[in-house]
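S.,

As promised, the calcium ion run. Input:
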Amino acid sequence: MTNKSILIFSILMIWFLGAASQVSTKKPNIILVYIDDLGYGDVSCYGATAVQTPNIDRLAAGGLRFTDGHCTAATCTPSRYSLLTGNYAFRSKTAILPGDAPLLFKPGTPTVASMLQQNGYATGVVGKWHLGLGNGTIDWNGTIAPGPEAIGFAYSFLIPATTDRVPTVYVENGKVPNLDVNDPIKVSYSGMIGNEPTGLTHPQLLKQKADTQHSNTIHNGISRIGYMTGGKSARWIDEEMPMVLNQKSRNFIIQNKEKPFFLYYPFPNIHVPRVPNQKFVGSTKMGPRGDVIVEMDWMVGELMTLLDSLNLAENTLVIFSSDNGPVLDDGYADFAEQLVGTHRPAGNYRGGKYSAYEAGTRVPTIMYWKGKIKPAVSSALVSQIDFYKTVAKLIKADVKTNEASDSENQLKTWLGKSRTGRTWLLEESYTLSLRKNNWKFIATVEGTVPAWFANKKVESGLSKNVQLYNLEQDPAEQKNVADLYPALVKEFQDKMTAIRQSPQKKP
Ligand code: NG6
Ligand code: CA
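Predicted complex:
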């Protein structure tokens, strides 16, 4: 080549690379790191000292940390349903699902994933699903559908329900990987099948003892909820799960790094059974519950290292949060209560998982976007119900009037450009609670609560009387002041009625 042609070639290359990088910065990638049962006080950037979470702390230090961020419900399935659809779970009476439940959504239901997919995103989910699969009777040995693909996830690698429920196998794009056709999987939630050992018949095989509900089929020394036979070659090893999920999420990101992508990354940590990889055993003095927090933090670190190494961090919004508040005893004898010491999983707040009190839904909430979100702490009232419309606004997608009717666009607040959050924020549990500024209202209980509540130390927050708390003076919800503020109670009751009756009109 002559000098002149080299010059022209170089100029063209510079122009081409510049144009290519402009295209790639147009639509940001979105990664939602969604932890299971992580409490407000469980990570060091929210005050924990008995466990250190340096990777999450780095997200908080370099991003926007919310002090009043909420998941929509105090249990998993309702929370995830609302997160993905932008509709409150109570409207469809969504509750915690068994491991063989059908897909919660009608195929084609608009979700954050389908909205992003329609807008050119590569979409994937890697981790705990717990939103049902199939039409009612699942053949775990064939193609399992409908599933995530029916609501907009092009790729899926799933723990079908929870790690304490059978089947204890992964499902990748509708198939159980590594399945031996001569050893088919059978699952039952209605009674014992086959003759595999159970927690009740073979307690000597257990790594952790469990309550009656968790004492069905034993796999990997852990008894689960539900019965299962077969699928031996396909069964997961709990201790290896972090590495497996790390690899699957990594593959998804690498394969889609040129496109805008959405990765929904729901971790199995720190839900029961808590069985950390050997690498993390003993990393806290709190036993398995502390150690799986450290393991979870390591997984976050692996993800962030990958994004940096691929130069994706500046074009990726990473959201870190949890699906419900903390719980110590959730069915397994992992000594979480005995070893908790001075650690406060719920921080200064009352209750936890299952609870109508604040800690049911007030969870760590961090937005991290290198170079785009300024490091700050925000006390704005924010909820995961707004994920749908906020993300739609971010990517300038149209949202039809029938989509995500409970969701609000909170983009300015989520990116730290405004400190004004929601005016009203609904918290779902076995009742409904409502926040406005620093006031918290808890409605009286309707319907039934699970029978096992009676034997557990769950601070449900349920009462036959209405409750009103002034969180500014009483963050731990100790003093019900409903009698002192009848007008305010009426305002909350009226608003609650309006929310129950119809989705709110949005600005
Ligand atoms: C409950 C289980 C609990 C946990 C929870 C789901 C009993 C007594 N308790 O029914 O251990 O699995 O369901 O947790 O069975 S969640 O985070 O997925 O909502
Ligand atoms: Ca959960």
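Residues 36-37, 76, 271, 323-324 surround calcium ion (ligand 2) (CB under 6 Å). Residues 3-26 form the longest helix (24 residues).

- D.
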